[in-house]
Please model this.
Amino acid sequence: MADYRQVIDTPTRRFIKKIEAFYSNATTDLDSGQQRAAYTAMCNSLSHGRASGITSIDRSLNGVPARHYTKSYASVSGVSDDHTRQALRPRIIYFHGGGFVVGGLDSHDDICSEVCAATGLDVLAPAYRLAPEHRHPAMFDDAVAATRVILEDNNWPVILCGDSAGGNLAAATAHALRHPSIIGQLLVYPSLGPDPGTGSFIIHAEAPLLTRVDLHYYLAVRLDGPDRLQDPQLYPLADRDFSCLPPTVVVTAGCDPLRDDGPAYCNAISAAGGRAQWIDAPGLVHGFLRARGTVDSAKRAFHRITSALIMLGGGGWDFKE
Model:
């Protein structure tokens, strides 16, 4: 087990306490409605508000509720040229985290708006169906359905992105579609494979904000039945084919049982001839995106995330092969 007193700094510990005041490990003992209320309170407490210059509309993507974020631009002459600029730019599809149990259009509103502001790219955030009301593969089906709509809309180039459970859905969607217009994926502390009983799953089994027991709980709620270890719709790392996947960046938290999924996934893509880069954020914990305004290391990690999205959107690759 890790000694977090040695690796987690004071600002991060303060962040952990703020989260736990609303959404502690004991929250999983509550019913789904109570969990969602606690999660909403936590999100509202830590929200920075909507980034300036960002507008949004709520829409449906093949029946999946979604929020579409756009950054306003003005030409030098003062005449808006939004349509021209946006026609040249990829779109980010952002799948929210929350263990497939909590989260929705509002939980990641500030994060999505800041991603839009920092990258200049439109962000579409689908609100996929949640467990326990809807079991696997309902959330996967929604992710694929929403992505198909964007891909079919004038052949928009797309970057798939998501945090935690959303990172799982982004990767599973990339594997399912392998579409040439999916030009990149960026996954933030994603869950990508089954618990191997080794590595970070043991070292960080009692990590702050996400424990190994929590992971087993969320999986059980999502499945409501036996594990499906060979199902790539559930576990992208279970896929036997990692070819034809887009350039991929995976960002992990150093103090997270899911940490080792990052290098394992990147290595699998690289071995199949693709481009993949793993970025670790030492000393940070699962959910650090919500600390980007108060913890310097989280702020730096968020900057690396948005910089990588800009890189992927431009078709570049700034990492060593």
Remarks:
- Strands lie at 54-61, 64-71, 91-95, 122-126, 158-163, 182-188, 248-255, 276-285.
- The first strand starts at residue 54 and ends at 61.
